[in-house]
Amino acid sequence: MSEKIPVQELTPHSIDGQYKGVSAKYNDKLYVRSVNGLFNKIRTLSLWALMIGYFVTPWISIGGRQAVWFDLPARQFHIWGMTFWPQDFVLLSFLLIICAFGLFTITTLAGRIWCGYTCPQTAWTFIYMWVEEKIEGNRNKRMKLDKEPMSTSKFVKKASKHFIWLVIALATAIAFVGYFYPIRELIPDLITFSIENQWASFWLLFFTLATYGNAGWLREKVCLHMCPYARFQSVMFDQDTLIVSYDERRGERGSGRGPRKKGVDPVEANIGDCVDCNMCVQVCPTGIDIRDGLQYQCIGCALCIDACDEIMDKMHYPKGLIRYTNEHALEGKEVHIFRPKLVGYAIALVAMFGLFGWAVYDRTPLELDVMRDRGQLYSNTSDGRVQNSYNAKVMNMDQKAHDFVITVVGLEGAELDGKTELSLDEGEVGDVPLSIKAVPWDLEKSRTDIRFIVTRDDGLSVEQESRFIGPASR
Ligand code: SF4
Ligand code: SF4
Fold first, then answer.
1. CA-281 nearest atom, ligand 1
2. Mutational test site, ligand 1, from 33, 35, 271, 275, max ligand atoms within 8 Å of CB
3. Whose CA is nearest to atom 8 of ligand 2?
4. Which ligand sits closest to the CA of 32?
5. What share of the chain is helix, strand, coil (3-state, %, to 5)?
6. How do the pLDDT tens digits run along the chain, 474 residues long?
7. Does residue 118 sit in helix, strand or coil?
8. Ligand 1 geometric centre to CA of 230 (Å)
9. Which CATH number is 366-469 given?
């Protein structure tokens, strides 16, 4: 994506005036100039990792089953060899809280590094911009093309771009739906138009259009107007947070920024290091001018650093006029990396990770749920005993089949009737009607606390409390 910046563009008069001193909010369409540099290379690597992870994960199988599969009809989430059930929802909530806390910690430390390097909106927007540049050419060619009247060549270019954008959007949607609908069935079903699940068809269409719209058309507007994180991230910033900043003292030295001949020493000439070439604005995917100071629109992508470093190199000035730094460093004050807020966040994060790991490790892969028959308090059998009815659900949450035995304790002499022995496959739920019969004179009270116990073939057991209701005889 590198686009060499010609030296003659180092004067404001030779630069297209679209952004000269004007922020993107006054312009409808951004023509982002591509740039290469250290941070763009880092982002390319992170985006590749993200893409490979996203598109390949649904195709990985463990033990003959899709490794990451959110099986909504069966209410089971299979994640890398573990199966989570609706009962584990609290773990999922906990995981989301950990992710939010992780984001707070990283934002306090390194600003909007998430937005610039790993956010899916950034990732897909960069892919779409790359496709656009390959088909329509660099920034100047794209601007020229848009001004031209429609012609066969323009139509072919535009149609090809939108077609490829739609193909990428469809591939994104297929991969997304593949996390919920077995992807090895989804693709043949899609090709033969035989997807039975209407929700799968809806989400395929929705995600195709959402990806195409967000990354192709809305782009930075999602960050500027739709992303809530952009609005509240500044609350987490402090004066030691790493941010992309313009060194105003250096750039505006003496009589300030401005064009000059190559080779002029800005310190001797008492002028700023900024040659006012506007490259930092032209490469900015949100169209802002970082020289105006920290703005919520800045996604911390560091493209302006790459662009400015390239200019500084050409001018034989030191790099870093725009750089990752923090307010304290810019003011020449002491920088505190390990400040109390950050240390507090980090300790809380480690503690939460530990608790989460322990909770997952300690999870019992067996669940028993017993419901009393609410329609009837009790009934009398022909032999004079009192009977209560129950419905027991046994969930085998393990990754293999097991045999189970159900027993009851808490009521001397009572008889448990029904299918008390059952075999369940991995992930299977056994639904068994049960009844307890007791002789009336064994009942000390009208309500007796009892416990149902289900025991697995390897000795693992869980229990659930319930009640036996009958006439009290004593
Ligand atoms: S900050 Fe750097 S890239 Fe931006 S206008 Fe000044 S010299 Fe050019
Ligand atoms: S100002 Fe710089 S870091 Fe911020 S969004 Fe624009 S190019 Fe990226």
1. 4
2. 275
3. 301
4. 2
5. 45, 20, 35
6. 444 444 333 333 223 333 333 344 444 689 999 999 999 999 999 999 999 999 999 999 998 889 999 999 888 899 998 888 888 889 989 999 999 989 999 999 999 999 999 999 999 999 999 999 999 999 999 999 999 999 999 999 999 999 999 999 999 999 999 999 999 999 999 888 887 778 889 999 999 999 999 999 999 999 988 998 888 887 888 999 999 999 999 999 999 999 999 889 999 999 999 999 999 999 999 999 999 998 888 999 999 999 999 999 999 999 999 999 999 998 889 999 889 999 999 999 999 999 999 998 888 889 999 999 888 889 999 999 999 999 999 999 888 899 999 999 999 889 999 999 999 998 899 999 999 999 988 888 889 999 999 999 999 999 999 999 988 665
7. coil
8. 25
9. 2.60.40.10
Atom of ligand 1 nearest to the CA of 315: 7
Q: Where are the beta strands (DSSP E) in 173-265?
A: 243-246
| Predicted pLDDT at 115 | 93
Ligand sitting nearest the alpha carbon of 259: 1
Ranges of beta strands (E only) in 63-153 are 65-66, 68-71, 76-79, 82-84
Nearest CA to ligand 2 atom 5: 298
What is the SS3 assignment for 313?
A: helix
**Ligand 1 atom at minimal distance to the Cα of residue 278:** 5
- Give the Cα separation of 107 and 236 in Å (integer): 7
Contact call for residues 273 and 250 (beta carbons, < 8 A): yes
Which residue's alpha carbon is at the smallest distance from atom 2 of ligand 2? 304
Q: What is the DSSP string of 268-319?
A: TTT--S-----HHHHT-TT---GGG---TT-----HHHHHHHHHHHHHTPPS
Q: Which residues line ligand 2 (CB under 6 A)?
A: 244, 283-286, 288, 290, 298-304
Taking the domains of the chain in order of start, what are their residue ranges? 366-469
The number of the ligand nearest the C-alpha atom of 321 reads 1
> Counting runs of H as helices and runs of E as strands, what totals does the chain give?
15, 16
pLDDT number for residue 198: 84
Which protein residues touch ligand 1 with a CB less than 6 Å away? 246, 251, 274-280, 291, 307-308, 311, 321-322
Q: Which atom of ligand 1 is nearest to the CA of 273?
A: 7
276 CA distance to ligand 1 middle (Å) = 5
Shortest-distance Cα residue to atom 7 of ligand 2: 284
Atom of ligand 2 nearest to the CA of 283: 7
Whose C-alpha lies nearest to ligand 1, atom 7? 274
Q: Report the distance separating Cα 351 and Cα 347, nearest Å.
A: 6
Rounded to a whole number, what is the distance in angstroms from the first to the last CA of the chain? 88
